[in-house]
Amino acid sequence: MKHLFIGATLVAAAMTMPVDVQAHQEADSTTTIGRSSRLSVGGYGEAVMTRNFYSDKPHRYSAPDQYKNESHGRFDLPHVVLFLGYDFGKGWSMGSEIEFEHGGTESAVEIENEEGGEYEKEIERGGEVFLEQFWIQKSFMPQVNVRAGMIVVPVGGTNAHHLPNEFFGVYRPEGENTIMPCTWHEVGVSLWGRAGAWRYEAMFLPGLDSERFGSQGWIHDGSASPFEFKIANSYAGAFRVDNFSVAGLRLSLSGYVGNSFRNTLYPTEGKKNDGVRGTVTIGSFDFCYDNHNFIARGHFDYGHLSDSKRISDFNISMPKSSTSKRQKVAKAAIATGIEAGYDLFSFSRALHSAGKKLYLFGRYDYYDSMYEMEKDMDEKWCGRQRVAVGLNYYPIRDIVVKGEYAVGILDKRYNNEPSLSIGVAYSGWFL
């Protein structure tokens, strides 16, 4: 993901450094280096097991006293991904990413929490293969590159850095993964480049679809389309700026703005909808420090949705046959988190020399998909804190074994949500 297939230096960069934040940035180069093949093949995958010490019943928030002292377990393949790229020469290159989420295609049966406990067949995108990226790029110089196709929207720390060796938890950071599409990808055009310690990216893309917004995920599902095309009645823009002036430190700002209300096939005409735009605005800051056997990462995201009351009423009135969640949506959402870990094997010269690592880490998150609500809304269960501690063990550079104990801390009227998770993941290049 991100900029993994850029130019002819990709494989050379992957061979000389781990697939981490800095390696991704250093791979963003258009300088040709001699190599035996123009083809690049890589990927990543995750297998996890979780025991959740709380109920998974759909009405656990409306009647919390009835669902105390319950637990459930899950096995999952959150992401299995194949990267494929090619350097055509003369500045032209392509990149693609095929992803299988949860070990299957993009159709599933889901239970909507607090919405009658109904079983619903969820079609996130048309088709059977999840093509997360496919783009063609023309590189003029390191400072100016143009890319067109299916591209990752670089808003937030997780979208820009979501490989399993770019976060400590068994799963991706929960806050950003809740309130925004993750990994957020759209067909669009981007302009990006790097000069000295600065890197920038600006992207033009279709707007989100407010028909698919909801309480628990805010705009999370708004980038998806159940059709064989993406509706683009409205447009949007996104940007990201990274700075690497301090050794081992990346500081990043990103943002998004675009209308969402009329980006649907369902009729939106009528006087009561005059002036309704559903403008989504997101601002985000994230950072990563990786030096002296210590890693710290963090993010802060705030999003605002105009006309949220009208959009909530519109979605709730949709027929059951529609793709709408038929839920209320907040006018603002928030997510913030920080994690830090230290390599305990750095105290052992033998283990450190062998390239083995064992990070002891802690993480704190606060997020709320209904952070600012209209007066008739009371979805307090959507906001929570989360505290986690765990270990990341690297027997070799491209393999990580993770263990984590976490507690989701909800409003006092609800039950807290402890969990224990273990997983194994890889991230690397085959060719």
Architecture overview:
The chain contains six helices and 19 strands. It has 431 residues and is mostly beta strands. The strands form two sheets. It has a 16-stranded antiparallel β-barrel. The chain has a two-stranded antiparallel sheet with strand order 5-6.
Structure summary:
The protein has helices spanning 10-16, 21-27, 157-160, 174-179, 308-316, 349-353; strands spanning 39-52, 72-76, 79-89, 92-101, 107-111, 119-123, 130-141, 144-152, 185-195, 198-206, 235-243, 249-258, 280-291, 294-305, 332-343, 357-372, 383-396, 399-410, 417-429. With 431 residues, the chain is mainly beta. A hairpin with a 2-residue loop joins strand 17 (383-396) and strand 18.
Q: Look at the structure and give the mean pLDDT.
A: 87
Arrangement of strands in the largest sheet: 1-3-4-7-8-9-10-11-12-13-14-15-16-17-18-19
DSSP helical segment count: 6
Count the E strands.
Answer: 19
How can the largest sheet be summarized?
16 strands, antiparallel, barrel
Report the sheet-strand fraction: over 45%
Q: What is the CA-atom radius of gyration, in angstroms? A: 22 Å
The poorly predicted ranges are 1-26, 28-34
The topology string of helices and strands comes to HHEEEEEEEEHHEEEEEEHEHEEEE
Q: How far apart lie the N and C ends?
A: 16 Å
